[in-house]
User: What shape does this take?
Amino acid sequence: MSQFWSPFVKDLVPYVPGEQPKMTRLVKLNTNENPYGPSPKAIAAMQAELNDDLRLYPDPNGDRLKQAVADYYGVKTSQVFVGNGSDEVLAHAFHGLFQHDKPLLFPDITYSFYPVYCGLYGIEPEQIPLDDEFQINVDDFISATTEAGGNSGIIFPNPNAPTGRLLPLAAIEKLLQHNTQTVVLVDEAYVDFGGESAIALVDRYPNLLVTQTLSKSRSLAGMRIGLAVGHEDLIEALERVKNSFNSYPLDRLAIAAGAAAFADRDYFNDTCQRVIDSRTQVVDGLEQLGFEVLPSAANFVFARHGQKDAAELAAALREQGIIVRHFRTPRIAQFLRITIGTDEQNKILLDALKTL
Ligand code: PMP
Assistant: This one.
């Protein structure tokens, strides 16, 4: 606290990202990064940008990346927004689309940045509990809206994080049919590992915004690239906020890498499939050790053990240089969130758990 702070800063409760330890030789399964590197074509595209043009500002619109996303999803470039990681895209959506005088609805167990953005932008949060199987029940969102006399919007990840559970598109469509007056934002950070994108619905529902990231399935977390797809009017709100905040959120390397990663479908399909296949093996291994594993459509699994305390397990793994994520949060304090790694990393994890 300092006299120099703007008053609202003292009440901010910032997001705490997963640890990025400085030690080497770690089995790092705590922040859902991709175990395989980015597309070699993305690396080559970045290398091609390493020239004198770096003295010039990048394209403020990131048109090359928007075009690659539009081509991939069969939408218009005016339906695409790009930003510095999907966290920034989400922040602009909270600022530009959710600041109304009603609560914003999201699941009680979900991405912990949502309440943080509510705090930053003065939005009232309303948490809708997941059911006993840790699933989103859209009927609960629909009835919460009716009871409260409306909402300022609805947001959830699909698959949800940290549970990994997937909501079918039919359920999302049901929600959209009932919730027509405010924005429904589907955060698809992990959708490529087993879900179907709601981008297929954006032309039918003008209040649907879908965000994605290149940090996970396209293995570019270090470049910070995110995007949103939706009706042009929603995209315009994001552009207006962005152009009042930072005109050049994506640098030249990021625009080039992102466009090349979207164009390289073979590498993308191949590496996603490898993660999905490894996930099956990790789930089998965990179940054999007595873990209950929630069905996952993501590049991580959420698992609890009937007899072993999750915090103790996480600490014991850490002593062996294996880092997984544990949340000291109601309802999920006995779960571990484990990122799917390479086959070698997954084996080290399962062997360590067997010993423990
Ligand atoms: N949404 C969800 C559900 C996430 O787990 C993450 C990763 N922490 C993000 C969005 C943000 O990803 P990024 O900013 O790397 O695009």
